[in-house]
Amino acid sequence: MEKVFNFSAGPAMLPQDVMVKVQAELTDWNNIGTSVMEISHRGKEFLEVVADAEKNLRDLLSIPDNYHVLFCHGGARGQFSAVPMNLLGSGTIADYVDAGYWAQSAIKEAKKYCTPNTVSVLTETDGLKAVLPAKDWKLSKDAEYVHFCPNETIDGIEIRDLPLTDKPIIADMSSTILSRPIDVSQYGLIYAGAQKNIGPAGITLVIVRDDLLGRAKEYLPEILNYSTLVEKESMFNTPPTFAWYLAGEVFKWLLAKGGLEAMKAHNEQKAALLYDYVDASPFYSNGVHPDNRSLMNVPFLLANPELDATFLEQAHERGLHALKGHRAVGGMRASIYNAMPLEGVQTLVDFMKEFEKAHA
Amino acid sequence: MEKVFNFSAGPAMLPQDVMVKVQAELTDWNNIGTSVMEISHRGKEFLEVVADAEKNLRDLLSIPDNYHVLFCHGGARGQFSAVPMNLLGSGTIADYVDAGYWAQSAIKEAKKYCTPNTVSVLTETDGLKAVLPAKDWKLSKDAEYVHFCPNETIDGIEIRDLPLTDKPIIADMSSTILSRPIDVSQYGLIYAGAQKNIGPAGITLVIVRDDLLGRAKEYLPEILNYSTLVEKESMFNTPPTFAWYLAGEVFKWLLAKGGLEAMKAHNEQKAALLYDYVDASPFYSNGVHPDNRSLMNVPFLLANPELDATFLEQAHERGLHALKGHRAVGGMRASIYNAMPLEGVQTLVDFMKEFEKAHA
């Protein structure tokens, strides 16, 4: 079979080296004669997996000591509920920066628990979708926290600014975590579903500053209670052990690849290759301002949408999978997370050139 | 390496045939050139996995058409919150049958949402732990539902009766589901964490009767809302796809093995082999009345607990893993779920005989 490059937005491709290792040790992990997914989460073998995963993640992100690292059930949507129920305390207002679908989904859930102040930040610059600078965001003085989603996967829009606030900043980093260095100390809480840059779907990363614990609502389900998860070291109930192990393998792979500075350079190179070609071509287009283009999710349109089906079919034949854009925006979307090699983007661009030549 | 038999209570061993298949197709599933965990949950390939898993589960358990099958995030402990928040409606009382640790854990969580009526059913018969017959359970006439956990994994106690009630019966079947046929129509809702008889940890099965939908509390996190999960076919958010796929493989394996009648015979044979030997030996003991012994989790004590460490060490050398009892009860525990072959129990009994001979 031809080499496959999988541009799925999530669940997304995982590093090939990691998958080969996971396969090799699937039925006999660490010479124990069974799979890592068949052993107790409380046994010493698995606790070593857990300790290594946390240590390596702390190294990668330079996580300060006053932040806890949690591996949770429930996905990022679980955090849409967990964040307000854990952090509002007696407050009733929270700022929610809105740049697209995922921010709006968080707002919808937050309405069960508080009055979210929706801070619309989308605008148009030079006929392109853009994000207002942070100084123009209308934050509320009464908010308990400011929530935002720095990367909107559907529109391929990235917010590069941080909110200008002294309130805790809460970030849904599901689709950008680990793609470049960040300064964790600027955030109160960061969360991310695993299925883009961390591991398989079904485990959720939460990084929470310790002063934000202890203010949970009494009706908060215990599996979403940060204080309980801190106390029980993410083992209040049986955790998704296989996903946790696999995330740990991804962290090792990232360190071996040079860490997040190296990932940043790698991701910028891939994105530039694709955006530069799209910008230079009259046959393809991307409607987002260069200052706000996502490095992870690159949507593009064909000038003639009647060719979409042919494009997708021929791309698939070339081993270029899962390029169909989200139904809300149509066209194509190439998700190019950490695990996507440069070769994959180059193969895509080569195919796009050929397709343009044949159909322009 | 010697053949390993893994008696872990959960995460537990999975069928060896399934693990071999999963390993073989881990990096190239279904000839698509990628892993099943790297593809969209909404693509046609994965939707076939989902449809097959549901169909096969419905066949195995003869699930009536007026029941929905959900695959959820959050584990059984997530359901400890979800059940009262989804089912109480405007009611404030629910019966909770209490035969041990897991029932009590469900009661603790339920106290956030209602006044649970704790129905203590443990007793002693002939000096052995036993369960009162259902006619003696003190249920409340005002309860919205009756919750029970038919198999307590720590004490190895099984409740064979069903509550005598016209209220919906809610069962935490985490450690017995699929071990024998059940009559689903007698239950309002059945839930089970996957990590014993279904698949890897991180996915949770819920089977819910359709008339119980639509009465959720407004502050219920959406990821735990049965109505939403029914409407979105368990894809309100990205599901744990790999665990779902693997559960589907386990369902196929169960059908190939002859279904749940065959499993029942297999499980009864394994349990009898172990209990009969323990009962006949003065060196080992089990403190549960035969009428209430678990077929899945068999705890046993050595007459001389000072030999526990030696027993565990020598057992491990023989490839008999994870036999240490829960810290609350001490001694040993052999969890012998569906995936444990008869050969594993026979090997354990052979070792126990040798150990008895050497140390009695």
TrEMBL record, chains A, B:
Q: Which SUPFAM superfamilies match?
A: PLP-dependent transferases
Q: Which HAMAP family match?
A: SerC_aminotrans_5 (MF_00160)
Protein name as catalogued: Phosphoserine aminotransferase
User: Its function?
Assistant: Catalyzes the reversible conversion of 3-phosphohydroxypyruvate to phosphoserine and of 3-hydroxy-2-oxo-4-phosphonooxybutanoate to phosphohydroxythreonine.
Entry binding sites for L-glutamate: 42
> What is this protein's gene name?
serC
Annotated binding of pyridoxal 5'-phosphate, by residue: 76-77, 102, 153, 172, 195, 237-238
Cofactor, how bound (note): Binds 1 pyridoxal phosphate per subunit.
DNA damage as a keyword of this entry, yes or no, is no
| Localization annotation | Cytoplasm
Membership in a protein family: Belongs to the class-V pyridoxal-phosphate-dependent aminotransferase family. SerC subfamily.
Q: Where is the Aminotransferase class V domain?
A: 4-348
